[in-house]
Amino acid sequence: MTEQQAQTSPGGFVDVHTHLIHPKFEGEEDAAAQRAAAAGVEMVIVNGLEPVSNRRTLELCAKHPNLQPALGIYPVDACCNFIDPQTWPHPFDSPARFDVDAEVDFIESVADQIIAVGECGLDGYWIKDGAALGEQERVLRRLCEVAIKHDLPVILHTRKAERRTFEIIVEMGVKKADFHCWGGKSKLAVKIAQQGYSFSIPPVVERSQAFQSLARKLPLECILTETDAPYMGPDQGQRNEPAYIPRGVAAIAKARGEDPAAVAVAIRDNFKRLFGC
Ligand SMILES: [Zn+2]
Question: How far is the CA of 4 from the centre of ligand 1 (A)?
């Protein structure tokens, strides 16, 4: 199969991390889900971030067979009671501060309706304050406990806190985890992959040498695809969306020098192993 055919033939594609509940998709959430289905993206995991997007994520996914919900607390939101909200450009119309523990309890209360816990993790890019970073870790541990108890994978944000996030999930005994949108060293990623964890690569891999290098170095059985839409798209300055997954798969296959159709099949199998469907 040529790269062009891989991009156009429908079926079998997966997006493990997207944000369809986002101002950039307002009023277009259903259309974006349909465009993904038309592009052959049969599994799209919509990731919630805080109380408002978590609830809207459940509602949206209930309407579309190709959408699956993951609920979580974004690391900057996790420490919302420890930071000045003015310093964090929150994209949602949700309250800048909320009861984080009540939200973890809510996520646990709907554990039987979700495919994973996430987005969650640590963020050392926006957050430098020690107390706020400590709070992020506390919330991550609570969410990992929910995931373990309900046998759900975690979808991890690790920006500028890659090694620490890895240490915590190992210490907690988390067996199923996806490291989304990896920005750390390839060497550390390979070490994490050797422990059986997965990495999801976004379509920006088309034009990002760092992601091409990551795609080459990781074992194929540890690679998944995501969009992180509306971010991390293949076209500079343009909104990303789940329908662009086939472009990401083609770019991953090209970087690895492998057949795009075979890579797509392997990634679909990897998804099934981690998420069970
Ligand atoms: Zn995200």
Answer: 28
The answer for residues whose C-beta is within 8 angstroms of residue 209's C-beta and 6 or more apart is none
pLDDT tens per residue across span 175-212:
999 999 999 999 999 999 999 999 999 999 999 999 99
Q: How far is the CA of 131 from the centre of ligand 1 (A)?
A: 23
- 121 contact partners, CB below 8 Å, separation of at least 6: 75, 136, 140, 156, 157, 158, 161, 165
Q: What is the pLDDT of residues 11-44, one digit of tens each?
A: 699 999 999 999 999 999 999 999 999 999 999 9
Please state the rounded mean pLDDT for residues 39-53. Answer: 96
According to DSSP, the residues that pair with 47 across neighbouring strands are 70
Beta bridge partners of residue 200, listed in sequence order: 180, 224
CA of 230 to the centre of ligand 1 (A): 9
Q: Within 10 Å of residue 98's Cβ, how many Cβ atoms?
A: 16
What tens digit of pLDDT does each residue of 68-118 get?
999 999 999 999 999 987 777 766 666 788 999 999 999 999 999 999 999
Which domains, from first to last, does the chain contain? 3-275 (3.20.20.140)
**Number of other CB atoms surrounding residue 113 within 10 Å:** 12
Distance 269 CA to ligand 1 centre (A): 23
Task: For residue 208, give every residue at least 6 positions away whose Cβ sits within 8 Å of its Cβ, in sequence order, or none.
Answer: none
Q: How far apart are CA 111 and CA 107, in angstroms?
A: 6
